[in-house]
Amino acid sequence: MYTSGKEDLKNNTSLSSVPLTALEERIAADKPELLESLTKLKSLLDEKTYRRCFEKVENMTRNATTLLIVARNPLQRSFIERDCIGALKEAFSVQYVKIIG
Question: Are 60 and 27 in contact (CB under 8 A)?
Fold first, then answer.
């Protein structure tokens, strides 16, 4: 019998589900070194654009030259690419922005 795999995930005791919290909260807790840059990004974008693009971002990480963003879906990735690349480079002081999702 074919299953979608969802039942396997539900029955896997090694996995747990947690609600997605605000990006700022997750960054403050897990990557405090990015919090100042995230605050600067928020000041560079209008509130509507910031919320649409970053409210549900799954993860962000940065090295010396690149910011990597894990978006939830291709639509969110497209919004970020269209509206935010310049602001991201400025806020996070990077040369490159890579977005997956």
Answer: yes
pTM more than 0.90: no
The number of angstroms, rounded, from the C-alpha of 15 to the middle of its chain's C-alpha atoms is: 21
Residue 94: count other Cβ atoms within 10 Å of its Cβ: 18
Q: In what order do the strands lie in the sheet with 96-100?
A: 59-62, 66-70, 96-100
91, with CB counted inside 10 A (0-12, 13-18, 19+), is buried
Rounded-to-integer distance, Cα 26 and Cα 90, Å? 21
Quick check: 51 and 79 in contact, CB under 8 A? no
Tens-digit pLDDT profile for residues 41-69: 999 999 999 999 998 899 999 999 999 99
Phi, psi dihedrals of residue 18, rounded to the nearest 5°: -130, 145
